[in-house]
Amino acid sequence: MFLLLLITITATFASDENSLSSESTEECPKNYISGRYDVCEAKCGEEVPYCIHVEIPWIKEECHCRADKGFVLTDDGDCIPRKDCAKRGSATR
């Protein structure tokens, strides 16, 4: 029963995905990652979180700072290389 419900929900969203794919999506800069991944952000001084790839068509794609590639989100919202955190005074090593 649960499997049938899951298949029905998936089919419904799959048909909606085709209409969403016609929207123009802006490509993320190299230090950002698409919102189709779980949040992979880390602020200066925080450990890099584990990132899991998730393909859920109804999640709006957004760009998130790529903590999985050594970037961190500063307190003022910039996505910078982790080595630059101390220079900006946002965290300690």
From TrEMBL:
Gene3D superfamilies: Laminin (2.10.25.10)
Swiss-Prot/TrEMBL keywords: Protease inhibitor, Serine protease inhibitor
Domain of life: Eukaryota
GO molecular function, one term: serine-type endopeptidase inhibitor activity
Alphabetized InterPro entries for the sequence: Ser_inhib-like_sf (IPR036084)
Protein name (Swiss-Prot/TrEMBL): TIL domain-containing protein
Organism, as annotated: Steinernema hermaphroditum
